Each structure stands twice: as C-alpha cells, then as structure tokens.
Amino acid sequence: MRIAQIAPLYESVPPKLYGGTERIVSYLTEELVRQGHEVTLFASGDSRTSAKLVGCCDTALRLNPLVMDAVPYHVIMLEEVRQRRDKFDILHFHIDFLHAPLVRDLAHRTLTTLHGRLDLPDLPPFYRVFSELPLVSISTDQRGYLPDANWIGTVPHGIPADLLPFRPNPTGRYLAFLGRISPEKRPDRAIEIARRTGLPLKIAAKVDRADETYWKEEIRPMIHAQPNVEFVGEINERDKARFLGEAAALLFPVDWPEPFGLVMIEAMACGTPVVAFNRGSVPEIVDDGLTGFVVEDEISAVSAVDRLQQLSRHAIRKQFEARFTARRMALDYLAAYRSLLEATAPKIKLVSSAE
C-alpha cells in the first residue's frame, strides 16, 4: 500500500525531546515500512525515518528561535502534499483540521487522527461542515465530545516492544512525573503527593512559552520548598528508559480530559505502575489494580502509593505487550485504511455462466 503520513512540524519525527504526536507518527511510520508498505513522511527536514522523507521546513519549529508563526510552514507542507496526493492510496493526517478544505474531494482516501483535546466549543460547527472527513480517535473518551463526527474507529497508541527495557527490580524508590509543566497536567498535585508520602519525586518536563508564568510563579517555588522534589528538565529517549524504569511509580495527576497519555504506556513498558487521576482516557489505559491505580484525589493517590507493592511488574509488562505495541497500532490503522478503500472500490457484478 502507498501511504502518506503527514506530521506536525513543531517537533522532528521522532522528537529530540518532548513531543507525543510526532513520536507516535514515527513509531507508526517505521512499523508500516517494516511490514513492507511504501510510506512517505511529510515532516520537518531534521526528521529521521526509513520511509521517504519530504522535508517541509529545515528544522523542528519549536526548536527554531526565528519562527514566530507555525501556520505558514504547515501551509507549505499542505502544498507539498497537494502536488503528490495522486501518488498515494491513503493520506493519513496528524495535524488536526488544517487540511480539511484541501482534501474535500478525496476525503474517502484520507484518514485524520485527532491527537488533541476535543472539548472545545469551536470544533462541533467545524466538523458539521466537514462531515465527510474520516476521523480516528485515540481513546473512546476523546470522541465523546464530537459524537456526530465521522468516526471510523478508535486506535490507541502503541510503542515499539523493544523501545523501553523491562526493569523487574528497580532501585530508585522515587516517584516520577514526566510531561509538560502546565496547569492541566497538575505537577502541583504530584509535588503534594510526594510531600504526603515522603518519597522523592523527580520531575522531567518541558516548559512551553505559554506556561512560563505558571512555572515561575507557582511550580518552581513549590519545588524549591520541598527538599525531596527534584526538577530534571526535558529528557531524551535514552534517559527516559532509566528515568521511568527505575521509578517506583509514575504519577499522572492530570486535571483535564486527557485524550491518551503516552507516558502511561511508556511506564508500563518498563513494568512501572501508574498512579493516575480518573480523567479522560485514564480508565481505558490503566487497569486498576493490575497496571496501576486509578484515583479520584490526592488522598486516594497517597493511599495508592502505599499499595504499590501489591502490583506485579511482570504483569504490567505483559499487559503492555498485549495492548500497546506499535505493531498492534499499525495493524489497527491498516485495517482502517483497507476499510476506507474497500468502501469506495468499484463494485464488480459477477454473472454466473450457468444463467
């Protein structure tokens, strides 16, 4: 199958540091190539892939201090896609909705994975206008905010089975927080949980420009006030394996309708349990009492940390292998591609020779 993967340009594919969507696009692209498909990746020019790369800007936009507006670069990418669109059986978009007017006449050969939050008032009218656009959600909870959109399936994220090594006997005895410093990710909750349990907390996170005030005025003072809390900053893939693998648990104290939460399955790949707040996709990903604990507040999170020894890291890894590998994700997407193509394929009427 000839497949185009169209990624956001904010990060390279895969990202050098933080970047969930671009990381998933990389895992999917590489697995599709491994399975023998002809894949073209539209992404930043500093991306690394075994597929054919069409670089649509020199470097990832977030890491380029000269970039003030990302939209012009994404429009340039869409022009690159437009010029080549007839070369593909399927065009798979990961850039929200910017491409919708461009592909209206070939929507039946496109798939759009919505990676972000959908509980926004501006989205329902948009998807009513572009009702023909085939969409895939990354969790069942996510699609509930657009019940009338053209959903053709839900495909949970997956990562390569050998990406993060299983660690059956961690020695770190610390709690881990990995992600972004932002109000909806609630690093303040993680700090409070660490304070109440007395366990060390390591925070590996990036600070976007939009969240600098929150970081400087709220989170950084909290970190400075707690001697058992350490801010590590952004980490790369190599450092992530040790950071998550040596942790006693990953804290995922989100306070928003989390569409997926990639870090949860990264922790599971290491055998590390997850203590996550019951928001968004969390109960779909964490098997309560098996791969971690789903909690409602800080008090129940502290209680969950006290019960971590009840969980088997071997069982956590086994659940990851059964549910969240890149191979499973790629097979799910291939099934979606084929479903789209078969739905629009010319129907051939067979006439029996006996008639």
What does this protein look like?
There is one protein chain. This protein is of the alpha/beta class and 355 residues long. The chain is 35% helix and 16% strand. It is built from twelve helices and 13 strands. The strands form two sheets. Strands 3-2-1-4-5-6-7 form a seven-stranded parallel β-sheet, sandwiched between helices. A six-stranded parallel β-sheet has the order 10-9-8-11-12-13, sandwiched between helices. β8, α5 (187-197) and β9 form a beta-alpha-beta unit. The longest helix has 19 residues, at 326-344.
Summarize the helices and strands and which ones pair or pack:
Elements: E1 2-6, H1 20-34, E2 38-43, E3 52-55, H2 71-84, E4 90-93, E5 110-113, H3 123-129, E6 135-137, H4 140-143, E7 151-154, E8 175-180, H5 187-197, E9 201-206, H6 212-225, E10 229-231, H7 237-245, E11 249-252, H8 262-270, E12 274-277, H9 282-285, E13 292-295, H10 298-306, H11 313-323, H12 326-344
Parallel strand pairs: 1-2, 1-4, 2-3, 4-5, 5-6, 6-7, 8-9, 8-11, 9-10, 11-12, 12-13
Helix pairs in contact: 1-12, 5-10, 8-11
